[in-house]
Amino acid sequence: MKRFLLPLILIAGLVHAFAAAPELGTVKWERDLDKGLAAAKKSGKPVFLLFQEVPG
User: How would you class 39 by CB atoms within 10 Å of its CB: exposed for 0-12, middle for 13-18, buried for 19 or more?
Assistant: First the structure.
């Protein structure tokens, strides 16, 4: 039984880590650059870009 428990826990952890997480808080993150730039221009707010690289 213990032999199968560790792989099961690891698989469950990976599924949880890569599942799409809902947006939290009051910040609205735009995932489309053109839409984000248009919204920033309309509201007069600055743009914050976040580049994430997934290794592999």
Answer: middle
